[in-house]
Amino acid sequence: MPWLQVRLAITPDQAETYEDALLEVGAVSVTFMDAEDQPIFEPDLGTTPLWSNTHLLALFEADTDETNLVAHLELLTGGALPEHQIERIEDQDWERSWMDNFQPMRFGRRLWIVPSWHEAPEPDAVNLLLDPGLAFGTGTHPTTALCLEWLDGQELDGCDLIDFGCGSGILAIAGLLLGARQAVGTDIDPQALEASRDNASRNGIDPALFPVYLPADMPQQQADVVVANILAGPLVSLAPQITALVKAGGRLALSGILAEQAEEVRAAYADAFVLDPTADKDGWVRISGVRR
């Protein structure tokens, strides 16, 4: 069925007032959206930061009277509404729409990421079947793409690999399909570990070849190849721990890093690694190198 959508341009200090007011007048959902493509990274624990320019979207039943709605909102909030837009939108099958938009993607020369509901464009290529849900890596983000392209360019036959912050397991599974002997995944989110197991099973990966652990449970072992696609802050603070996972002569790839954060991350690893030139994609970077 169709809906009445109200879009308000607000600042963070207005968020709670207008969210409460919209719910009070009958909104069936309220969503905060970035109005200017402004990223928020590594918020303080227990906080829910908003963008400096935020859009607040609320959905109402289609027969809601617009004039009465605005009047009630202004009465509840004590003044005229901020810049706003009201429109009627048609309902759609959001899951179906998302599935239709998630198409097979090629990374490097050999590797394809293929939605589990889609035919592989090149059946003889290295095809990774993925059913990530909406929460974990699909390969569409530049940082994941940078890591997948790097893995495709590596000689992985017989190597041991660690995926530090494994999410959907996409990087570890790609490494295994590209020839790695074994991969270990670790993540702080138990749901990520479950997603990794599910995606490994979908690709015919023996569970013994891809064990996954919470960080506290991870065995103390080194690998020939370590990939960590997390965030710049943790990459810097965890540099000694991540470095210790890489064998002498082993290879490391780091991402989840904005271009302006690259030098800080490089500096944290420069003593222990011979670093490659920084690779970039859409404002994000990958830092890779070989352990001294």
Please describe the structure with a list of short key phrases separated by commas or semicolons.
eight-stranded mixed β-sheet, 9 helices, single chain, Rossmann fold, 28% helix, 15 strands, Alpha-Beta Plaits, four-stranded antiparallel β-sheet, alpha/beta
Can you give a write-up of this model?
By secondary structure, this protein is an alpha/beta fold. It is built from 9 helices and 15 strands. The strands form 3 sheets. Strands 8, 9, 10, 11, 12, 13, 14 and 15 form an 8-stranded mixed β-sheet that branches. A 4-stranded antiparallel β-sheet has the order 2-3-1-4, with helices on one face. A 3-stranded mixed β-sheet has the order 5-6-7. The chain starts with a strand and ends with a strand.
What's this model, at a glance?
It catalyses: L-lysyl-[protein] + 3 S-adenosyl-L-methionine = N(6),N(6),N(6)-trimethyl-L-lysyl-[protein] + 3 S-adenosyl-L-homocysteine + 3 H(+). Helix 5 (170-177) links the parallel strand 8 (160-164) and strand 9 (182-186). Helix 4 runs parallel beside helix 5.
At the fold tier of CATH, the topology name of the largest domain is: Rossmann fold
Major sheet details: 8 strands, mixed
Mean model confidence by pLDDT: 87
- Count of domains: 2
Q: Topology as H/E string?
A: EHEEHEHEEEHEHEHEEHHEHEEE
Distance between the termini: 62 Å
Which architecture of the largest domain does the CATH hierarchy give at level 2?
Answer: 3-Layer(aba) Sandwich
Strands, count: 15
Number of helices: 9
Shape summary: elongated
Given this structure, which CATH class of the largest domain is correct?
Alpha Beta
Structural class: alpha/beta
C-alpha-based Rg, rounded: 23 Å
Roughly how much helix do the residues carry, as a percent range? 25-40%
Organism: Pseudomonas tohonis
Protein name: Ribosomal protein L11 methyltransferase
Binding site for S-adenosyl-L-methionine: 144, 165, 187, 229
Subcellular location: Cytoplasm
